[in-house]
Design goal:
Distance between the termini: 17 Å
CATH class of the largest domain: Few Secondary Structures
Largest sheet: 3 strands, antiparallel
Shape: elongated
Order of helices and strands: HHEEEEE
Number of strands: 5
Strand order of the largest sheet: 1-2-5
Structural class: alpha+beta
CATH superfamily of the largest domain: IHF-like DNA-binding proteins
Strand content: 25-35%
Radius of gyration: 18 Å
Length: 87
């Protein structure tokens, strides 16, 4: 499912227009991003936990040249599924 499919599904389940559902989906995504930037984590009980983690600097290999390179440290988001995502 892509964003368009998500908007359509939200519109059907909430019995609202696609335009309203698109605003809600966009607002939810924006709120998650802001929460991660501000607090470093977002938890939706039963659905998922998102947490900002620091990935350290590491060595890698350039696949084109086969030369060793250093991959710089960066922040990444870790996702942990909640109980409602168990299939």
């Amino acid at each position: 499912m892509n964003k368009t499919g998500l908007v359509e599904a939200v519109a059907l389940k909430a019995n609202v227009s696609k335009a309203e559902a698109a605003k809600v989906v966009d607002a939810a995504i924006e709120a998650v991003v802001e929460g991660l930037k501000k607090d470093g984590k977002v938890e939706v009980v039963g659905f998922a936990s998102l947490k900002v983690a620091e990935r350290g600097e590491r060595k890698g290999i350039n696949p084109l040249t086969k030369q060793a390179i250093v991959i710089p440290a960066k922040k990444v988001v870790k996702f942990k599924a909640g109980s409602k995502l168990a299939f």
